[in-house]
Each structure stands twice: as C-alpha cells, then as structure tokens.
Amino acid sequence: MVVDQQARELTDDEIDRIFGALADATRRDILRLAMVGEQSVSALAGNYTMSFAAVQKHVAVLERALLVTKERRGREQIVHSNPAAIRRAARLLDAYEELWRDRIARIGDILSEPTAPDQGD
C-alpha cells in the first residue's frame, strides 16, 4: 500500500506523537508562530490567556513530536520549528490523499462501466 511505503520513515509512535500534537489548536498556533521565526517561550506565552506553565507544556508536547526544538539562551528558552518533521508529516498526509484519490478514481471507473443487459428475463 502506498501509505505504508511513505510511512516507513516514521514509526507508529512518531506518527501518533505528531498528529496528537497537531490535534490541539493552541499547539498548531504555537507551531505556526515558531515557523514564522524563533520565539522564546515567554514571548509565546504572551500570545495566550493561559499560564506560562501551560504554554510550556504545549511546547513540550510539540518538542516530543519533534515538531519544534528548544535552545537555552541565557535565561530564555528559544523555540525553533523543525521543518524536516513538518515535511515528513506532510508527506504522510500526501500519501493518504493519494490513496483516497486512487480509490475514488477506481469507484468512478466501476460506476462508469456499462452494465450488461439482464439475461434472466
């Protein structure tokens, strides 16, 4: 299956961590901000009404999914996006899209085949 071939570069656990991390709107927004440019966790926390600790936990989930990395600079923890991990997730989604497009095309082919006249009458 096409998806299996594409997914080989990611383990099931990695896929679960990536899509589990992306399942939350706040984490997707943090990732979006990190993709625009590096951000300190403090700067990220300024964008949300939740506590600094809550934002830090969201960043930790993204970090476990390898979607971001953190670098300590003095007292700040700087968050960077990880474009390679994002590309791997995108390739997996592309593989699912290809699989479903192929299935839909085959269903279309079957439905467009002329039907044989009924021989029973």
From TrEMBL:
GO terms for molecular function: DNA-binding transcription factor activity. PROSITE patterns: HTH_ARSR_2 (PS50987). CDD domains: HTH_ARSR. Residues 7-101 form the HTH arsR-type domain. SUPFAM superfamilies: Winged helix' DNA-binding domain. InterPro entries: ArsR-like_HTH (IPR011991), HTH_ArsR_DNA-bd_dom (IPR001845), WH-like_DNA-bd_sf (IPR036388), WH_DNA-bd_sf (IPR036390). It comes from the Bacteria. This is ArsR family transcriptional regulator. It comes from Sinomonas atrocyanea. The lineage of its organism: Bacteria, Bacillati, Actinomycetota, Actinomycetes, Micrococcales.
